[in-house]
Amino acid sequence: MGRVYIGKVVSTHGIKGEVKILSDFEYKDKVFKVGKKIIIDDVVYEIKSYRHHKNFEMVTLNDYKDINEVLFLMKKKVYIEENDIELSDNEVLDDELISYSVFTTDGIEGKILEIFFASQNNKIIRVMFDREVLVPVKSPLIKEINKKEKKVIIELISGM
């Protein structure tokens, strides 16, 4: 499996080696936990402490106890191994979902072009059938997301 981008180290916090990670990763609660391994510049680090503060994920890594020990991490991208994310059966990563086949309940096949956030809690799938359709992920229009068959079933309503 591969790596999944979960955020970026944007600064330090305090003098005890805590770093701020800016993340819009959907499943933060599954990756930002004490004991989880994250990857920065191909080096694996263990999360020793974690807390959420404002828009940031605040972590201390390995045995770093001083601000000077973590300055080299500034502005670096943070990843996690895909295997380390424990998703339930109805949860799918966007990187994986974009490769799924899309079908309407009438059997028309389409292709996912993009997944984006219309607002902080409103994710949209842009699908191309014979025309472009925007479908909210958390809507009754999505009838099924099948991880085994890698397909999404969408019910189009008249006018779409």
Characterization of this structure:
The chain has 160 residues and is mainly β. It has two domains: 3-84, Elongation Factor Tu (Ef-tu), domain 3 (Beta Barrel), CATH 2.40.30.60; 94-154, PRC-barrel domain (SH3 type barrels, Roll), CATH 2.30.30. The chain is 8% helix and 49% strand. The protein has helices at 28-31, 67-70, 94-97, and strands spanning 3-13, 18-22, 37-40, 43-53, 56-61, 77-81, 101-104, 109-119, 122-128, 132-136, 142-146, 151-154. The strands form two sheets. Strands 1-2-5-4-3-6 form a six-stranded antiparallel barrel. A hairpin with a 4-residue loop joins strand 11 (142-146) and strand 12 (151-154). The protein is elongated and about 60 Å long. The mean pLDDT is 92.
Please render the helix and strand layout as text.
Blueprint: E1 3-13, E2 18-22, H1 28-31, E3 37-40, E4 43-53, E5 56-61, H2 67-70, E6 77-81, H3 94-97, E7 101-104, E8 109-119, E9 122-128, E10 132-136, E11 142-146, E12 151-154
Parallel strand pairs: 7-12
Antiparallel strand pairs: 1-2, 1-6, 2-5, 3-4, 3-6, 4-5, 7-8, 8-9, 9-10, 11-12
